[in-house]
Amino acid sequence: MKRIKLGDIFEINTPEGKAYLHYIYRDESLGELIRVLPGLYVERPTDFNELAASKEMYMIFFPLPASYRGKMVELVGYYPADKFGMPKYMREELIIRGEFLGWYIINIRTRQRKLVKTLTKEQKELSSWGTWNGAFLIEMLTNGWTLENWGSEWTSDKK
Fold first, then answer.
1. Phi and psi (nearest 5°) for 128?
2. Is the pLDDT of residue 31 over 80?
3. Which DSSP state fits 27?
4. Which of 11, 22, 95, 128 is a good FRET partner for 56, with 20 to 30 A between their CA atoms?
5. Which pTM was predicted?
6. Helix, coil or strand: residue 89
7. Domain region containing 69
8. Residue 22 lies in a domain
9. pLDDT band with cut points at 50, 70 and 90 for residue 152
10. Does any domain span residue 107?
């Protein structure tokens, strides 16, 4: 089995098609950061350059080495990761006892959190804080979860 490296592109199968993940950063405590590339595909693209160069749907921390060893994802390509990096901020819902209290905006480097009641346009583009496993990622891809619809019909009970 080939050793994974920054820039590798992985395929993950969902009931709705194949999705592609671009490995762009390794954080010592959070693990591997991946870009979830746009679209679900019936067949594997023959060239990943255009897809990997496009804007991602979102970024998540994902247990890539374990998913690769367990054959949940397949290494299918490479695109340089040097122009991508860890975002400065990510976000997460704050829900206590079923009540939505707002959003945490998290500074990734300092881990400082700021609570906001409503998101600005820029904050709505922030990816989800935390690590997603393969089953959860497949569920979210299959159900059409996006940053734009997160917080409207989507709530944390779907996690």
1. -75, 130
2. yes
3. E
4. 95
5. 0.90
6. strand
7. 8-86+128-158
8. yes
9. low
10. no
